């Protein structure tokens, strides 16, 4: 599975725009009335103005695991405060990660995977794609089953599913279905269901849906490309 486009809400849109385009250096590819879009490797990421909901997203950018050390230095040199670093032990999510917050308070991650990056140094162009988005819900099993049945996503290991955590996807792209209220690693911050729109590609087919209050609904297109 690959995430082609993700649309997130923001109640600090100007600060988000400055953070992602100036501080991190992602290219702004479109600005529209209530938001903007940046290109994050192979994924288009959009933020739209929405002041009626405090967001608490968790999402991850995929980089080469060989670049984790230099990516850490790169972030620190840009005065980005890192959260606790972790090395995962689960076979599902093997890799090392760097975590930080954006101006909206979302938990952003650089996740190292076994992918090639021929650059000698880290640059924002080293981000290959946005590869993870958290999806808190009240019933993890039911939502995970719906994602698998409706969008033909093949989980890396369905036997690892439990009532708190279902890893629906693979190393290229994953929907992290968690029990609402479960803390996002590496913080003590409980997850809440924050609305988003997404377009994914699975086995050559494209699907779009929106998540609202931890439930999903099919879409023909996502907002930023209407």
Number of extended strands: 14
Order of helices and strands: EHEEEEHEEEEHEEEEE
Which CATH architecture is right? Roll
| Alpha plus pi helix count | 3
Q: Would you mind describing this structure in some detail?
A:
There is one protein chain. This protein is mostly beta strands. The protein has one domain: 2,3-Dihydroxybiphenyl 1,2-Dioxygenase, domain 1 (Roll), CATH 3.10.180. The protein has three helices and 14 strands. The strands form two sheets. Strands 2-3-4-1-12-13-14 form a seven-stranded mixed beta sheet, covered by helices on one side. It is globular and about 45 Å long. The chain starts with a strand and ends in a 7-residue tail after the last strand. The model has no long low-confidence stretch (mean pLDDT 90). It comes from Splendidivirga corallicola. InterPro entries: Glyas_Bleomycin-R_OHBP_Dase (IPR029068), Glyas_Fos-R_dOase_dom (IPR004360), VOC_core (IPR037523). This is VOC family protein.
Tell me the layout of helices and strands:
Layout: E1 2-10, H1 13-23, E2 27-32, E3 35-40, E4 43-49, E5 58-64, H2 68-77, E6 86-87, E7 96-101, E8 107-113, E9 129-137, H3 140-151, E10 165-169, E11 174-179, E12 196-202, E13 205-212, E14 215-219
Parallel strand pairs: 1-4, 5-8, 9-11
Antiparallel strand pairs: 1-12, 2-3, 3-4, 5-9, 6-7, 7-8, 10-11, 12-13, 13-14
Pick out its properties:
2,3-Dihydroxybiphenyl 1,2-Dioxygenase, domain 1, seven-stranded mixed sheet, 3 helices, 14 strands, Glyas_Bleomycin-R_OHBP_Dase, VOC family protein, Glyas_Fos-R_dOase_dom
């Amino acid at each position: 599975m690959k995430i082609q486009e993700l649309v997130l809400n923001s109640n600090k849109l100007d600060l988000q725009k400055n953070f992602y385009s100036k501080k991190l250096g992602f290219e702004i590819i479109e600005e529209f009335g209530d938001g903007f879009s940046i290109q994050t490797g192979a994924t288009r990421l959009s933020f739209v103005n929405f002041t009626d909901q405090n967001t608490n997203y968790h999402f991850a950018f995929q980089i080469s695991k060989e670049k984790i050390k230099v990516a850490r230095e790169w972030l620190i040199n840009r005065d980005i405060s890192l959260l606790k670093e972790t090395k995962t032990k689960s076979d599902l999510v093997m890799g090392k990660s760097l975590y930080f917050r954006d101006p909206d308070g979302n938990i952003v991650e650089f996740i190292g995977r076994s992918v090639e990056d021929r650059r000698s140094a880290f640059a924002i162009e080293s981000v290959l794609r946005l590869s993870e988005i958290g999806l808190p819900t009240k019933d993890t099993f039911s939502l995970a089953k719906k994602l698998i049945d409706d969008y033909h996503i093949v989980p890396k290991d369905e036997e690892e599913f439990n009532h708190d955590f279902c890893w629906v996807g693979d190393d290229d792209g994953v929907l992290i279905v968690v029990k609402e209220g479960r803390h996002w690693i590496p913080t003590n911050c409980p997850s809440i269901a924050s609305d988003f729109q997404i377009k994914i590609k699975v086995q050559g087919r494209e699907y779009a849906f929106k998540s609202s209050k931890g439930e999903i609904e099919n879409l023909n297109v996502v907002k930023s490309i209407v």
